[in-house]
Specification:
Elements lengths: L8 H15 L6 H8 L3 H7 L3 H26 L3 H12 L6 H9 L6 H22 L4 H24 L10 H12 L2
């Protein structure tokens, strides 16, 4: 008798996130995901009523992972400049799931995606603003700097998606990241 795979809601959510990163929201379809996971559609319906519920679970997982990454960085050092540097190094690392944010941004009109993107963006801007205030900037300047930093971050995803050869890779990545940190950290 063949061993049966028992998946959790989280397994499905992570598979959905990977599908979004590969092909956008349209790539989140029950049959292909089940086939990719090596299970039947029944597994999906055991955990979710419909595709929208899976998308919501996937987006909540994405939000949690982003929040956790920021929290880990924030707890790792008391120096706000070092925290900003660590965040920027992670953000501009090409190994990170940049395609996911790009595909989610293109689906911002979705009633499922839009509110999550807005909430995530707001939280990230607040976290950056707090770090900039800790660096000694006044609140207004800190808000402007956090917006510039986040716009740079999101813009890099757009460029990687539309003109990947224009973005720095390997040997040029470290000087680029150093330039970003030098420019954005007071």
């Amino acid at each position: 008798m063949k061993n049966r795979v028992r998946l959790t809601r989280e397994d499905w959510a992570i598979a959905a996130l990977r599908a979004i990163a590969r092909g956008g929201l349209k790539a989140v379809a029950v049959e292909p995901l089940a086939k990719h996971l090596g299970v039947t559609k029944g597994s999906f319906y055991w955990h979710f009523k419909n595709r929208d519920e899976l998308l919501q679970a996937a987006l909540l997982r994405w939000e949690f992972l982003g929040d956790e990454a920021i929290a880990v960085t924030t707890r790792s050092t008391s120096d706000p400049r070092k925290r900003l540097q660590m965040l920027f190094e992670a953000a501009f690392d090409p190994k990170n799931a940049h395609a996911l944010l790009h595909h989610l941004s293109t689906a911002k009109a979705s009633p499922i995606v839009g509110p999550v993107l807005q909430r995530v963006t707001t939280k990230r801007l607040q976290a950056l603003t707090e770090m900039y205030i800790e660096c000694g900037l006044d609140e207004s300047t800190a808000k402007h700097r956090s917006l510039l930093a986040y716009a740079t971050y999101v813009g890099m995803f757009q460029i990687r998606a539309t003109a990947p050869d224009a973005t720095p890779v390997k040997a040029h990545l470290l000087p680029f990241t150093e330039h970003i940190t030098h420019t954005l950290i007071p």
